[in-house]
Amino acid sequence: MRMNPLATRFASADFSGRVLTMNSLKPMRWIPCSAILGLVVVAGFAVRTFAQDAPDVGPKPRIVLKPMESHIGNITGHAADAKSDYRRYCAGCHGDYGDANGENAVWLDPKPRDFTTAAFKCRSTLTGTLPTDEDLFNTIGRGLTNSNMPVWNTFTKQQRADLVAYIKIFSPRWEHEKAGTPITIPPEPPITIESISHGKALFTKLECWKCHGPHGEGDGPSASTLTDSKDNPIRPYNFALGGNDSRFKCGNTNQDIYKIFMTGVDGTPMPSFADVIQPNEAWDLVHFLRTLQVHRHGKENEVLMDAHGVIPPYVDKNLAPAADNKTSGGGQ
Questions:
Q1: pLDDT tens digit string along 106-157?
Q2: Four-way CATH pick for 193-306: 3.40.920.10, 1.10.443.10, 1.10.760.10, 3.50.50.60
Q3: Residue range 187-222, pLDDT digits in tens
Q4: Dihedral angle sign, alpha carbons of residues 209, 214, 215, 219
């Protein structure tokens, strides 16, 4: 029986195609088990990393009003009693959760204090330690110069004490740590031109000028690079600004300036010099810095005027005289 030529051609093409396909197959390359296992491990690690980096989504948790207290003299503050005052006067900048994310914070420079870190600039305690209740109490009443933190002199002492207690609800450090021990401030020595001269030498030696500038105007070579602990730009203090009422961020007395040297300003590049200088040296620095407040009428500037406005080079009287290098005899 004669087959249809078209059918014969189709059958032949199909068969030959199957044969060619089988013959053209290449041997399979076996992948080592270790390589496969490595890929699985890497993939699993990537998944776990992604899961760890994912935020805790959902509604923000409610604020837990912990039963915190403060003690300033014979006044006891209670966090619960400051809830309304904090929401009315403080939350706009510091945020409902104390995280410095209040609705006004985006417009402020420098940024508000983040209470969740429990790191405070103005303290009487050593760097890295919690401030005392009185430190926070004084900051609320005094305000912070060169910032948007005003002087809250409209609060009663009880209101301020209650707010100090309320601030503590934002950081677990207040539940597990005690406030640091206030430093001891020795009596201030007399203000002399020698003290001012030594302070000037220390200002140079400790490289204070790199941030604050050679004339204390906050324009040192490092000034534009400085950031705080949250990477926000921060400006060094300009001592030359202001009039006769010139003050520093954490107070206006010489004792307040002394505390800054010995405790540092936590959360900023300003370190503590407690392990670097002696108490008498800190006082000399205080006296010199006062002369940088050129519009202030104080004892330091009076002493400088009596010296015709010139600070003489510092001579350390405690150094032994240079040894005589001449040798006796020996000839030429």
A1: 999 889 999 999 999 999 999 999 999 999 999 999 999 888 899 999 999 9
A2: 1.10.760.10
A3: 999 999 999 999 999 999 999 999 999 999 999 999
A4: negative
Two tokens, residue 147: 């910032």
Of how many residues is the chain composed?
332
Residue 329 has pLDDT above 90, yes or no: no
User: How far is Cα 245 from Cα 248, in angstroms, rounded to an integer?
Assistant: 10
- Residue 135, judged by CB atoms within 10 A of its CB (0-12, 13-18, 19+), counts as buried
Answer yes or no: is pLDDT of 247 > 80: no
Are 160 and 69 in contact by the 8 Å Cβ rule? The answer is: no
69-176 topology per CATH: Cytochrome Bc1 Complex; Chain D, domain 2 (1.10.760)
Confidence of residue 65 (pLDDT cuts 50, 70, 90): confident
The residues spanned by each domain of the chain are 69-176, 193-306
Contact 213, 236 (CB under 8 A): yes
Six-digit token string for 211: 């941030």
Residue among 250, 258, 280, 298 nearest 189 (CA): 280
Q: What's the CA gap between 21 and 23, in Å, rounded?
A: 5
Q: Is it true that the peptide bond before 110 is cis, omega within 30 degrees of 0?
A: yes
